[in-house]
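dumping this here before i forget
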Amino acid sequence: MTASRLVLVRHGETVGNSSMRYYGSTDIALAELGRSQMRAAARVLRAELGCARFTQVFASPLRRALESARIIAGDSAHLIVIEEFREVDFGHFEGMTADEIAARFPAEFARWNRDRLAPDYAYPGGESRAGFSARVGRGVERMLAQRQAGVTLLVAHRGVIRAITRILTSAEPVIELGSIQLLACNGGKQWAVERLDFTAHLTTLD
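structure:
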């Protein structure tokens, strides 16, 4: 396979303020701010990052990712949904801010802060870190099995994009809302980082 690029975009801000609240499996829509962020991402991908056309467009099945993908790639783009790219299920923490979690579940909040990176950590009533990582790994295999040469776009969530970047390159980006990660493959199976945490387009929104 010839050289390819993988563009990873985190969806924009949501009606539930996903910049502040832990929305994982909850299916919420984009806010108008989020749409502006995605229009800005589309512009910078075309004008500055050399991604004017996408060979394929993949997305999480959640609405905030699907709408973001359509804004970037165009309404006529064929979206390939990867079910495994849903965000992690935060369980009892879903939809809450960190302060709300600390107030309502103090013991679980303390355990979360202490053990959240442990492979066996599981959100109360939700998904385990190991289970989530394994799920995203299966999604990566599905995506790469369908990948064609050229520029591939994937729009998903912070946890998913972080896991994918770690699997393919061992990098650990921050991944703010609307941020862009660019990975490149030289024709074999080895992926390398081209850009991490690109957010310059988010400083001026329409």
